[in-house]
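Notes to self after the Tuesday call (sharing in case useful).
The group wants a holo model before anyone commits to mutagenesis around the pocket. I volunteered. Ligand is biotin. Logging inputs and output together so the record is complete.
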Amino acid sequence: MAVLHQNVIEIVRLLSDGQYHDAVFLAEQLNLSTTDVEQLVRQLEKHEIPVLWGLEKGYKLDGSLILLNQKSIQSQLRHNYVPLTILEKTTSTNDYFKSLSKETGPVQACLAEAQTAGRGRLGREWHSPFAQNIYLSMLVPFEKDISDLSGLSLVIGLALCRAIDVTMMQQSKKPVVKWPNDVMIDNKKVAGTLVEIKESRPGFCQVIIGVGVNVNMHKALKEDINQAWTSLFNVTGQYIDRNIFSAQIIDTLIDYLERFSLKGLSAFSQEWETRDGLAQSQVAVVYNNRKITGTCVGINEQGYLKVKQANGHVELISSGEATLLK
Ligand code: BTN
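Result:
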């Protein structure tokens, strides 16, 4: 991805009021020449930010690109005690919490407009263009051993489905969770979760929950994403206000995590059944250096995937990735 310079961020701020601005005005505001402004506009396209040009009018952003706004998000949060950090760009919002000194405190959240080294599961990259999607990490303490958090990623997936449902309103296309934590719409990935451990000792642990949701991204350079994906814009045909949606995700995650902490995974078994994106699907999973194929028949009480093999044996898979077989 092209390097995200501060001037790119500044010109998006100027253009994000939805009005046309000519190159002379922009050059004055940015303390640059009009030639520099023209080059900057070309860079916006490299960052997948579509710009319209009008004769004698200048430039404006194509589509409603609303930047993240701390006050707006905080005012919409039900759990408004949550300290929230908003970064214009960072390597990865998970890294932001990794780099903080160890401290025990309540849940905290960090959002970024762009990530320059966004990470996915299994060593993959997470495509993180500027101002289009949600890149969120939450630092969450649990008064539990880390081993008691089995199933956490499934619960996060359920919370994301719920937040997406509320935001898309009345859409017939429902998000589901593809075990262990991909959120899918129409068999395409719309969101993913990367859970990392910040601290773990007997009876206490702190985890970093990283969530990426494709929101207003229309298209991405092919080589940047190597799996079938979609975005809420592609599903609904409408731009989503990322400030409202961020607050919705943070609130829903906190509700679900509190319930998980008190009652465990069993409190979500009914909801899982309605959101199980692999139910009765034929899959292949590589697990303990063996390739297991069979039919998915739900999860056990620890959140392990149950795969029924041709000989009738049900294999329990604790981690990995299931590939759908046609
Ligand atoms: C996956 O499905 O592979 C997990 C994707 C997780 C992406 C999010 S974006 C916010 C946080 N920061 C990262 O670098 N990764 C997670």
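Two things stood out.
Residues 64 and 225 are 24 Å apart (CA to CA).
The chain has nine helices and 14 strands.
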